[in-house]
Design goal:
Number of helices: 5
Distance between the termini: 18 Å
Structural class: alpha+beta
Helix content: 10-25%
Low-confidence stretches: 234-245
Radius of gyration: 20 Å
Number of domains: 2
Shape: globular
Strand content: 25-35%
Order of helices and strands: EEHEEEEHEEEEHEEHH
Number of strands: 12
């Protein structure tokens, strides 16, 4: 577990993650520091939506030392009732969305939070080739996103029984990569083959740039090689990892 620490209003604040997500963690802690100038973030009822996720502060005492731990909703179980000290999932989604927005040059992202809903074609949940399209939300809590089959011959004619409404965090269960596009503007269409995004276009059908899985693997390899070169570790300098880069 990686621990990130800072001091806000003379109080020690810790953030835990299972990955070295320094950029995302630093951005979140910086935001909490800024919020502390406007409100009492150490109030037990404090909660803030930052990006896609919701965060809290939990007071702890260890060997007579008082500090606060950043918690987030537990998206892998029940984020409406449970909290966790492990911010890994929330920070990864934050990195994914920031990366997508920057690569596509989106100046005004349109946020979706974990509790916002998505309309899903049931058949698409287990399909290989799917797409997501964002329309204007119809009510509070509606993200405007639709998750459907690519090249659906019955598009627009599905019955209510064929559709289901899910919260955006539930994408983790069947198409985690789709979390990456949730801040894209109305009119955006994203195409996926299994859990890999293959196309991204705006409301005018213009192709948008995005970071591919291969791009991320190359970035990992280059970073690892640079780190290994600095330490003289020739074996690691030649290694090409296959895990996705979790730090942008």
């Amino acid at each position: 577990m990686v621990t990130f620490e800072t001091e806000i209003n003379n109080k020690k604040v810790k953030l835990y993650s299972n990955a070295p997500l320094k950029n995302a963690a630093t951005a979140l802690l910086r935001t909490l520091n800024q919020l502390s100038e406007q409100t009492n973030i150490f109030n037990p009822t404090f909660a803030v939506n930052y990006g896609w996720a919701r965060y809290f502060l939990s007071k702890r005492t260890e060997k007579n030392n008082v500090f606060y731990v950043v918690q987030t909703a537990d998206y892998e179980n029940d984020p409406f009732k449970l909290r966790t000290d492990d911010c890994t999932s929330a920070l990864i989604v934050q990195n994914m969305q920031v990366d997508t927005n920057m690569k596509a040059k989106i100046e005004n992202p349109e946020p979706t939070i974990f509790s916002d809903t998505i309309l899903v074609l049931k058949e698409a949940i287990s399909a290989k080739d799917v797409y997501m399209n964002r329309s204007e939300p119809t009510k509070n809590g509606d993200s405007g996103w639709y998750f459907g089959l690519l090249n659906d011959e019955n598009e627009g004619n599905h019955t209510n029984e064929e559709l289901v409404t899910v919260h955006s965090y539930e994408l983790m269960k069947f198409r985690g990569e789709a979390l990456r596009v949730l801040q894209m503007p109305v009119g955006t269409v994203a195409v996926f083959h299994e859990n890999t995004m293959t196309a991204l276009v705006d409301k005018d059908d213009n192709s948008l740039e995005f970071t591919t899985a291969d791009d991320r693997k190359r970035a990992i390899a280059q970073r690892k090689a640079a780190e290994a070169a600095q330490t003289g570790d020739a074996d690691n300098a030649l290694a090409v990892p296959d895990a996705e880069n979790k730090e942008n």
